[in-house]
Design a protein that fits this description.
Elements: H1 2-19, H2 44-59, H3 63-94, H4 101-129, H5 135-169
Helix pairs in contact: 1-3, 1-5, 2-5, 3-4
């Protein structure tokens, strides 16, 4: 159970990091392409559109369900991104070499509390989704979002591998 929770937290953090990314140098790929395609700088709006389209298709959402879901979905992700930024700040602070063991412990405990807050946010939004969506549909949404995140992560790694190979050749 703890492993599943940690994996879920990691995936949510990854999703937040990818969707809040502002690196203008990384080529983007569509979900079906196997090699990088140079595109304009990262656009959060474009990312959200692609994410929505993927979730709608994979979870089989009706237009009414999608119209209900996505404002809440994006609100939830925004709150989780804010917490992820706080966690990143704490991790950065934890890299300082002159901290005491108690300061490290305090950072770890704060990170743990923030991770739990992220899960509570997700849980509260699942409750909000239940006002219009079945549990089966909510699970399909969660699953589709996880698949979308994995595909985006794979694409990022493919680009990094491609870039490293090209850098070695030069």
């Amino acid at each position: 159970m703890k492993l599943k929770t940690i994996l879920l937290i990691s995936l949510i953090t990854l999703s937040a990091a990818v969707s809040s990314q502002d690196n203008n140098q990384i080529p983007m790929m569509t979900l079906t392409e196997s090699r990088p395609v140079h595109r304009p700088p990262f656009s959060p709006e474009e990312f959200m559109k692609r994410q929505e389209a993927f979730i709608i298709k994979e979870a089989g959402l009706t237009p009414t369900e999608a119209q209900f879901l996505f404002p809440l979905f994006h609100q939830s992700k925004q709150k989780q991104r804010e917490i992820s930024r706080q966690i990143q700040s704490l991790v950065k602070k934890g890299k300082e070499k002159d901290l005491t063991e108690n300061e490290y412990l305090s950072i770890l405990r704060t990170i743990d509390k923030l991770q739990m807050n992220k899960l509570k946010i997700e849980q509260s939004y699942h409750e909000k989704y239940r006002k219009m969506l079945s549990n089966k549909k909510i699970l399909a949404i969660v699953s589709a979002n996880a698949r979308f995140d994995r595909r985006m992560l794979k694409q990022m790694f493919r680009h990094d591998d491609h870039k490293r190979k090209n850098d070695k050749r030069n």
